[in-house]
Amino acid sequence: MSYPLEAGANYNLIFTTLDRSLIGRFFIVVSGPARVILRSMNTNPEQPSIATNTEVATPGVNIPTNATWKQNGVTIAGGHGHGDATNQLYTPHGLFVDDDQTVVIADYGNHRIMQWKNGDTTNGQVVAGDKGQGNGLHQLNHPTDVLIDKETDSLIICDRWNRRVVRWSRRSGTTQGEILIDNIDCWGLAMDNQRYLYVSDVVKHEVRRYQLGEKNGTLVAGGNGKGDGLSQLNWPRYFFVDRQHNVYVSDNNNHRVTKCNKGAKE
């Protein structure tokens, strides 16, 4: 499998040879996926060129092609029945996993956001809400999704039944959030590598992209009324945005997943 290379990214070139005597300086000539030629820069004409295979991986990804996964999972959050204790969840919805494997969870039925640190499966920490169901800035009402904005070290939350998207600082002592987008029947959230925020709307049957601070956004999927046409969605919930900013939508009531390519007119 080959991957597009990104400008400004660092890549490791890995090559192997069975001859330990081959040392010195070499030109590296990449002639295609999984093929690299090392051409000697030595003055010795008897020094051969070396043809070898290599693997170019996307940044941050290093999964062997023959990797396997354990068939039994482990509980990392909750698992003590539904409830509102710090070791419990109540109908959890969306979640986000940070680079250090900290997990933040939209604890839908408890009107709060919970955080579990990697390795601590005993108790979570309330990081937003948990002040009862309500519409105050210190409250949430059935949150359905959450993500971490690393640039501002904050949580962005889909506050579903308050019909708003809110931001809560992750700094200690934070007691309330601020409204980023209101009057929106949001369900799912995503943020791309340029810090554009994407939000699904289950009543308008669409997904929009917002620059932080913007109120109207740009339509990226659906927006043509409820339906099963290729330009329509029906109760879109969660979705994924890839590196090329294509959007994959879980089109809930159409029982399908659709892909919306960036730049496409249909």
TrEMBL record:
Entry protein name: Uncharacterized protein
Molecular function in Gene Ontology: zinc ion binding
NHL repeats: 80-119
Keywords: Repeat
UniProt source species: Rotaria socialis
InterPro entries named in the record: 6-blade_b-propeller_TolB-like, NHL_repeat, TRIM-NHL_E3_ligases
Taxonomic path: Eukaryota, Metazoa, Spiralia, Gnathifera, Rotifera
A Pfam family recorded for this sequence: NHL
